[in-house]
Amino acid sequence: MNPYRFAPGDAPLLMSIPHVGTAIPAAVEARMTERALARPDTDWHLDRLYDFANELNIPTLQAVWSRYVVDLNRPPDDAPLYPGRLSTGVIPGQDFAGAPLYQPGEEPGDDERTERLRTFWLPYHQRLERELASIHRKHGVAILFDCHSIVSEVPRLFEGTLPDFNLGSAAGGACDAALRLQLAEALGEDENYSLVVDGRFKGGFITRQYGDPENRIHAFQLELSMATYCDEQEPWHYLPEKAGKVRPSLRRMMEAALGWARERG
Q1: What are phi and psi of 122, to 5 degrees?
Q2: Residue 74 in contact with residue 81, Cβ under 8 Å?
Q3: Neighbours of 37 (CB within 10 A)
Q4: Is 265 exposed, middle or buried (0-12, 13-18, 19+ CB in 10 A)?
């Protein structure tokens, strides 16, 4: 199975969806807990929610394999993204709630971890790098949008309820300040949704690794509350009426990024 899906496009923006995948190799599934097999920490339905990306001619790279196989938004050396805070790793052993993913004694060893990085993590990042370089050559500027969602309350990882829109730019290090402002303005236009910029989620490994504003490669992440578009409990049904209300804000954000890039290309 290909480790990712890629939809081509001619826009100066690449959308990455690293946590939408649900595939798990059968040999790994056989060792996992029943809870893990439900894949509760998946970024459910983002491919459907953002299907207008095709209309905007935006190339899209999305994961096929579950984040429980390998987390594409973590560094390969598993260095913490938020030192001092609880986190799941590049090869997770627990879910967001702290429950084990594997039956006792069935956790992956060092050799298996290395092989997963080589087989599942590396191809995604190689394609991401290649597409960003291609966009940059063609347009003179490239923007990477790393697309995520999460349930609105995860007590083990953060206090309280998350805002609806959690825009991250590595505290301004991954994209131009004017671009960040335009993205925030686009998301903040609908007062029915709450917004925070570089708050609890400042961007994961992908945003931090590939954002290089000095060389005209800009990256940002949006961590979207699942409460805006789907059920937050199993089986995480997509809610078309809710989704239909939030999609205009998401599209405005994408169009703002495209407009900003084309003005500078």
Answers
A1: -60, -45
A2: yes
A3: 14
A4: middle
Angstrom distance (rounded) from CA 196 to CA 162:
9
Tell which residue, 7, 16, 67, has the closest CA to residue 40: 67
The tens digit of pLDDT for each residue in 24-45 reads 999 999 999 999 999 999 999 9
Band the pLDDT of 83: cuts 50, 70, 90.
low
Q: pTM of the full predicted structure?
A: 0.95
What distance in Å separates the CA atoms of residue 71 and residue 54, rounded to the nearest whole number? Answer: 25
CA angle 146, 110, 72 (to 5 degrees): 5
Q: What are the pLDDT digits (tens) for 174-228?
A: 999 999 999 999 999 999 999 999 998 899 999 999 999 999 999 999 999 999 9
